[in-house]
Write a structure and sequence with these properties.
mainly alpha, 2 domains, 8 helices
């Protein structure tokens, strides 16, 4: 976290650590990662946001999609390329789960609206399309 706060060193210095954290599968880290993400969002620290998003996506997979989509709704004036890449990778990982997740975010608690949207606006496509 210090790297993202103090912008100490270069990304390549922490890349192996990020890769290891992303691949570790330790879901016990998820609550702390959410706390850190909230802090970075509050501080409008897009670099920290993107680092945490990468780790969350690696550990939590498609389950991290709602958190990352909410984080992407915050405009810090950056291009969001790192965050967007994580989101797109999650969308490609499990298209049907991602589709249902996005629909639930768009239409929470409104099954009729979700059903209509699902069937008319965003119908399922064969996996080969991605």
């Amino acid at each position: 976290m210090r790297h993202a706060i103090e912008l100490e060193g270069h990304y390549y210095d922490i890349a192996p650590t990020l890769a290891a954290l992303s691949a570790c599968g330790d879901s016990a880290l998820v609550p702390r990662l959410h706390e850190e993400l909230d802090r970075f969002l509050h501080e409008e620290n897009f670099y920290g946001r993107d680092l945490i998003a990468s780790i969350l996506a690696g550990i939590d997979g498609v389950a991290a999609l709602p958190t990352l989509l909410r984080a992407s709704s915050r405009d810090f004036g950056d291009d969001q390329d790192g965050l967007s890449a994580e989101i797109v990778d999650l969308l490609k990982t499990d298209r049907e789960t991602a589709r249902l997740t996005v629909l639930d975010l768009c239409c929470p608690g409104r099954s009729a609206a979700r059903s209509w949207t699902r069937s008319r606006i965003w119908p399922p496509r064969p996996a080969s399309r991605w």
